[in-house]
Structure formats: C-alpha cells, structure tokens
Amino acid sequence: MTRFILSRLALLVPTLLGVLVVTFLLLYVAPGDPVQSMVGERADAETLARLRAELRLDDPLYRQFGHYVGGVLRGDLGTSYITRRPIVDDLLERFPATLRLAGAAMLFAAVLGISVGIYGAWRPGSWIDRAATFAAYLGVSFPVYWVGLILILVFAVHLRWLPPSGSANPVYLILPAITLGMRSVAFLSRMTRAAMQEVLQSDFIRTARAKGLSQTRVVLSHGFRNALLPVVTVLGLDFGSYLTGSILTETIFSWPGVGRYVLTAIDKRDLPAIQGSILFLSLVFVMVNLLTDLLYARVDPRVAYD
Amino acid sequence: MHRILLATTLVLSACNDQGGDGTLNYYFTYDPRSLDPALSTDVPTGEVVSLLFDNLTQFDPDAQLKPGLARSWETDAAGLTYTFHLRQDATFHDGRSIKAEDVRASFLRALAPGTTGGRSWPLYPIKGARAYSAGQTKNVQGMVVRDDSTLALTLEEPLNVFPKLLAMPVAAVVPTPTPSDFDQRPTGSGPWRFVSWSHDDAIMLARNESYWGGAPRADSLRIRIIPEPLTQAAEYESGQLSVVEVPVGETRRWEQNHADELQRRPGLKDLYVAINTTRGPLKDVRVRRALNHAVDVRTLLATVMADRGVVSAGSVPPGILGHDSTRAPFGYDPARAKQLLSEAGHPNGFSLKLWRTQRAELARLAQSIQQNLAEIGIRAEIVERDASSARAAVRNGEADLFLTDWWADYPDPENFNYPLFHSRNKGPGGNYAFLSDAPLDSMILRARATTDEAEKGRLSRDIDARVFELAPWIFLWFPVDVWASRPDVRGWRFPLVFTGQRWMEAERIQ
Fold first, then answer.
1. What pLDDT is attached to residue B360?
2. Structure confidence by residue, pLDDT tens digits, B129-153
3. What is the pTM assigned to this prediction?
4. Is B177 exposed, middle or buried (0-12, 13-18, 19+ CB in 10 A)?
5. Residue A89: closest C-alpha in chain B
C-alpha cells in the first residue's frame, strides 16, 4: 500500500508539470490584455508600457515560463496582478468555503441518493422507485443555474425559510448544497439501484436469506457493502469536481469560494491568479482521486495495491 | 405537522442575519481589488474608498462638487495654480490631525512608480507628476505645502475640471507611512471606519462618531458581495438588502410590484456603438450617418431595455453642461440610410463585424442592430468576446463596430468629450471610434482650459454638435438607472457618480 501511495505521489510531478505547461501556453496565446484590466479606462500608452515591463510581459516566452516555474518550485504561485496579494494566500483563504460547500453537497447527495437507490432496488416498481426514477431524470436535465434560482425564489423570497445567498452560518449552506448535490443524487440513486439489483440476484444473498436473516440485514449488510464499489467511484469523482468546479453555484449563492476567485481572475485576465488556481485545483483533484482509490481497498478487500 | 413547520420557519428565520436595526445592507457585484486608494481602478474599490477616506473635494448624490477636506479653494487668473485651504477639525480614524503635508504625501504615494497598477491619471495634470510617476524625478514640483492648512497645486496647463479630478478615489488622503496590510485593513478619515473584510463575502463598516461632517445616522454598513443580479433582487425582496438596482429584465414586474420603492433617473452614461472611423467604408461620414438612420433606436429601447433610457443625439447626457435637448436624434429612416449608402458608393451595402461583450442585455441588442443593418444591405457579423478580449481588440483598432457604454467618473462635459473623441485618446484612452478631427480637438482643448464657465458651456455645446455631425457612433441612448430602496430605509438616493453616496443620511426606521 505504501509503495502504491508513493508511486501515485511520484506521478503527481509529471501530471502537475503537464498542467503547468498547457495552462501557461494557453494563457500566453489567449486574447485579452492583463495590463488594461489592471489600470482600467483612460490609461496612457506610457503607463501601459511601464507596467508591461514591470510584470515581465515583454520578456520572451521561455524566460517568462522559467521565471514562473522557478517561483512554483519555491512554493510561490506569484502575486495577483489585480489584488497585489500572494495567490497562495488568496486561495487558502477561499478553499475552506469551497470545502464546506462540497462536503455538504456530497453529504446530501450520498444520504439521499444511496437511500433512494437502495429502496428502489429493494422495492422495484413501487411508487417511490418510480418517482425517484422520474426525479433522477429531472435532476440530470435541469441546469444548475435554473435550479439555484428557483430554490432561491421559493425558499427565500416566497416562503422566507432560508436566506437567499451568503455564508454567514451553516443555514446558508442548505440551498447551495442542494443545488450542487442534485445531479449527484440523480446519478448515485441510479447507480446504487443498478448495482444493488445485480448484487441482490447473487447466490450469496440467496444464502443469506436462506439462513433466515432479516430483510434489512440482507439488503444493508450483505447487499449494499458489495454494491458500494461503483458508488464510491461516483462519489469520489463528484467530490473532486465539486471542489474544483462549483463556479455556477458559488456565483448564484454568493458563496466566497475558489470557483468565484477563478472566475474573477479569468474576467480580469489576472494571469498568475488563473495559473495558480488551476495548478492548485489540479492538485486537489488528483489528491481526491488518490483518496478514492485508497477507499476501494477499504470497501472491497479483494482490491489490493501491493 | 404545522407546528414542526412553524418551528422550522422560526429557527431558520432567526438565522437570517440582517445585522440589526442599526445596520444598512448594501452590495457590490464583485470584490474590491483592494481598500487602498492608490489601487482604486474598479468601481467597488472606488466606492468603498469614498466611504473610508476623504478627498480635498467630494461629490454629493446629485453629482454636485462639494468641499471635502478642503473647506475652500481658489485659482489664479490663468487657471494654473489652485490653492486649497484645509479644514482644521479633520482627523484620521486613529485621532491624528490631517495636515496639508498628509495630502502631499498621499498624492506622492499614489503617483509613486512602485504603486503597481494604480489609476493615477487624475493627478497627472499637476506639474511634474507624470515625470515623477515614470521615475524620472524625485519630486513633484507642482505641489507646495504653504502651511499646515494650505496646499498649492500648480498644473502643467490650465484645466478647469481639476477640482473634480481631486474627488476621484485615487486622490484620497491616507495616513502615511502606511502599514503593509493597509490594503486589507485601512485606517482612513471618512464617515465610516473599517471593521472587517471577508473576501468575496462581505465588508463591515462602523460609523465614525467623530467625523467632521457629523456621524452617519446608521450604526453600521454591511456591504455584501453578490455577483448575480437576480440573486441581488432576491436578497432585496427577502429583506436582506436595503437597496438594489432593478435588473433590466425585471423592470416591468418591479414597476407593478414595488412602484413606491423605485427611484428612477438618467445616469451620467452613454450606450452606443463606436464606429471605427479609420476602417474601410466607415471612413465616410455618409456611411456612418446611414448606420444611424438604419437602427430603430426607439423600438430597441422599448423592447430590449424596458424604456430605461433617453434617446441620444450626442454624447453629453442631460444634466451636464453642453447637453442640447433641442437637437433631434437621427431617427429611424431606412430609405434615407440606403440613399446615403448609395451616395457613398455602396448601393449594395457591405460586410462588417459588430463586436460586443458577453453582457446578457447586449446580446439581444446586438442581434436587433444586426437585423436593422441587414435591412439596408449591411451584413454585420456579431463577434462576442469576454470584456477583456473585446476591449483589447477594439483598442487595437481591430473592430469595425463595438457595442458598449461609458460611465462618467465625474460630472463634466470634459469627461465625455476628451476621452471619447480627442485624437490623443484613440484606442486605450477611450476614443474607440479612432476619431481624429482637428477643429474638434482644438475646441475640446479650449473647453478644458478656459476659466470662463459661460465660454465652457458654449464650447461644450459646439463640441457635442460637431460630434453628432461627424457621427463616430451609432447614438443609442442615455441609460436611465432604476434602483429600489426598502420601505424601512430613509435618506438614501442612488448617486449620479459612483463616489457620490456616502450613506450619511441613510437610516432604517421602525
């Protein structure tokens, strides 16, 4: 296991280097002028030229890249052109909020999606199962943006049960977590249902029933544990993408996370902030994938990495 | 079941945090880049700087220039040297008195070459400021402290708008030397003191009890960062925001549901299509006039913008010196447009590219303009880019047409005429039409320099008339702002310039 972890961590280096090179080149060729975004309207040519020189934007590509990589190797992702703060500070300040939202969305998705999936496999064709199937189709079909606004309209504006947006206390998590987790509920419920149905047809389930175990014990202890592997895969992938790509949800609910930071950075052509964010988020995604792989071994003893 | 619902509602309602009766709740669409005046290039930074700091001069909500730290000022006969007399009762939030030397030090700090990426052009008119900013000199010779309460500023050339430039955020006075975290936790002197800033979330301010202009009425001001306009509206409707700008698409509904809460007035803004006067057929003024006759501005305004605008016949909006309300707009006249195109040698029209940014309301507008142009044979391809890319292309002169807007920083015809039409400002300076007209340039410079207000008014009217004649834009309209303030909020009006509302009179009533 240790060897597996070490080899995966070693793979991080070429992965992140690849991300760094591709991001750097893409941003180099992308249109837009970071210096114009910094100084706003009515800037004169001399000021623009001076800033370009200060930011090394006139240097040849290889020198700019070398300078950037040198900083990254020292753990310095650079300074934002716009806020003039170290990018690492900006990201670390916002990441806990993103983590809270992703965690809440996953919890919501896992509890609801798995429960509905198990029930559907246990009582296929029941009204709950059919309703869940229908809801799952809706869940994957509705755009996040639309769902978020509808939830705000219903629960914040009309019923006034919940705040529309913000992050002042845990109550503020409810609507964005539902919005973000909704697609996972749909996927997870269908995935769990299919996996459970397959497992429940197995010989060992028949044996468990023949032993006289209660239906609950058969389904949860014997059935669900064996159906868990694909569910863990979906959970891991979704959690990774929530941590790295909840821009829309964060925007609709004014959630102060990394997604909005990236969006602002792109909008302002804040090149170091975009590069730093993408590198940071790539690291997060790879680490979540690694943890998911490690979870496989816990869930299914047949999976061994040594 | 009902009890459970009621209990849930009570618990959740208790969690809705408005910050108490003494707190007013405002919002920005995005996080300020900094709270340091020297870095104020964006609207949120400028707004919050105007709350935390003081300038020599300042604007009220109606964009009238008022004394700030300077209780009065005068200029010499040539309009070259301005002498400012500072009030003696002003202090920073740490209790230190504000003296003329603080003003000078603040200006030097904002101009310093190391202050990367600021917006120091409002201070450039001071003699030697530009050279100092470029690192060529060690001092700004045009700034002289006469005594603790007198500061003389000598300009490179006469500029009558100079006192208005000093109300810009970059000219705010700061307590120097500033600590390293000044951009995050500033000490100012304005009507509000800094309390906290949670990035992308909220800024909390408390009233300055010892403010020289009297303390604000409310205890505190919370500024939330809410990027999505529909969420802003929902926050307002659920009572979480004290004021909100009504989203364009929601105007009709709000006019019905919130009629008593609405405030409506033309802002100091232009919405227009810049015509690049150096490209192909667009060099010909007859073609540019044809474009103006081709677009059905009144219908667009009603259908796309819910009538939130005043059709324009020039660039200077109502309420600004030089605006001429008697001049008739070009008017929708496709036949006249076709005739003009024929006279210019393009009876079968031609192709061009219409650039726009990704703002939602501009999408429908661009499509309608495209359709109008097609009716006279002009095939317009819409090029949609994010704001940064679109502006970069336009500033480089790569766009034929660019659908955009202009917001005044300060209420003066100069803020329209000089950046938008003087040949010095082609491209990055704001003249997206790349207009270069010697008589116009000369009038603009004279209007900037004169010390005679009547002559400035006459010249400004002539400039606007000349601009209209040259048709460097498709003139659309002066946008009308529509804001709402909650029934329990009193004493707040939305400002005509972004630094004009300092929340002094606003309060929540029971």
1. 78
2. 999 988 899 999 999 999 999 999 9
3. 0.90
4. exposed
5. B199
Strand B220-225 versus strand B23-28 pairing type? parallel
Amino acid at A231: V
Q: What is the torsional sign of CA B296, B297, B301, B307?
A: negative
Residue partners of A305: CB distance under 8 A and separation at least 6: A1, A3, A4, A293, A297
Cα separation, B185 vs B192, in Å, equals: 13
- Which three-class secondary structure state does DSSP give residue B272? strand
Q: Mean pLDDT across chain B, nearest whole number?
A: 92
Residue A192: both structure tokens together: 């769990």
Q: Is 0.90 exceeded by the ipTM?
A: no
pLDDT of residue B1: 42
Chain A residues with CB under 8 Å of B116 CB are 38, 51, 54-55, 84
Give the strand pairing for B351-356 and B401-407.
parallel
Task: Please tell me what DSSP assigns to residue B425.
Answer: G
- Tell me the two tokens of residue B99: 């003296």
B281 upstream amide cis, omega within 30 of 0: no
Element of type H or E holding B419: helix B414-421
- Alpha-carbon distance of B185 to B448, in angstroms, equals 38
C-alpha B287/C-alpha B285 separation (Å) is 5
Any idea which residue has 């955020």 for tokens? B169
The number of residues in chain A equals 306
B253: its two tokens:
């509904």
Nearest CA in chain B to A249: B228
Choose the mutation target among A81, A100, A159, A161 for the interface with B, i.e. most B CBs under 10 Å.
Answer: A161
Rounded alpha-carbon distances, angstroms, from residue B19 to A166, B190, B192, B205, B221: 13, 22, 16, 12, 9
**What is the spatial distance between Cα B322 and Cα B441, in angstroms, rounded to a whole number?**
16
